[in-house]
Amino acid sequence: MDTPLTRLVGVRHPLVQTGMGWVAGPRLVSAVANAGALGILASATMSPQRLRSAVREVAARTDAPFGVNLRADAGDAGERVRIIVEEGVRVASFALAPRRELIDRLKDAGVVVIPSVGARRHAEKVAGWGADAVLVQGAEGGGHTGQVATTVLLPQVVDAVDIPVVAAGGFHDGRGLAAALAYGAAGIAMGTRFLLTSDSTVPDAVKARYLEAAVTDVTVTTAVDGLPHRMLRSELVDSLERSGRTTALLRAVRHAAAFRRLAGLSWPRMVRDGLAMRHGKDLTWSQVLLAATTPMLLKASMVDGRTDTGVMASGQVAGVIGDLPCCAELVDRIMAEAAETLDRLTRGRTVG
């Protein structure tokens, strides 16, 4: 399927696997790339040295294009951009709108820049700064999310910018791809659907929790870091929502210390990152610490398999997913279903 996205990044299919912390590692990203879609390596949970190693591992596993996701507000974002350029990575994506100078550095090196946004005005801003495409996530998406549904937000953004738009939030099959194309998108991005594949390194017990979940088991809470965060309801989420301020602060400090050791960060650097997160937001310091160390809560589930002590970011689509195909099977299935759906529509027949 030929779309502005496939032409821009050089993949066969207009599908993107999002950069999920602790999930989107070399094995998953290379499997997605080899299936003909765009895999995005998650770097926020990696040190710069580990990022370089992971990029090289993906490159050794596939000749297809892939990308790296960056945290735009990270203190070492510039260093990570340098690694992307030096290692010849095709695509840089951002969880937040990046600074204009980062976009300029990447574009000067021939890297395709695709920021993620959750509002029309943010899409207009990054398009004006020279972004090559934009990924727009509606409220159905997992992790930090907004309040506007994809079906409302997507057409707003498509009408507002003249660069390719990738739709995210609520997609898991070929019918969704066809719908996104009808709205004017150039492709779709999926996180939870790629998490729930046999190529994903997430422990089986955690995948089972996702597969067991109903749509109503996927909740939005501000208890983790003060921002709306879509995840599976769990023992920890219930505990955080019941916790008082002192308990929340102690938990935050404990996780901050663990994350500092794991990521090789200094306390001053973590404070700077926390201040960047707090800017413009009414967050307590315990929430700032939790925001900076949410990766540890994700690691507990996504790596250690501890669903009782970790959080499980999830899109609402977890409630309608019931299998664990490999990435190649999933991509082929989505593309076949999209082609069938579009064929039925153009022939004027009802989709059954």
From TrEMBL:
<keyword id="KW-0288">FMN</keyword>
<keyword id="KW-0560">Oxidoreductase</keyword>
<dbReference type="Pfam" id="PF03060">
    <property type="entry name" value="NMO"/>
</dbReference>
<keyword id="KW-0503">Monooxygenase</keyword>
<dbReference type="GO" id="GO:0004497">
    <property type="term" value="F:monooxygenase activity"/>
</dbReference>
<protein>
    <submittedName>
        <fullName>Nitronate monooxygenase</fullName>
    </submittedName>
</protein>
<dbReference type="InterPro" id="IPR004136">
    <property type="entry name" value="NMO"/>
</dbReference>
<keyword id="KW-0285">Flavoprotein</keyword>
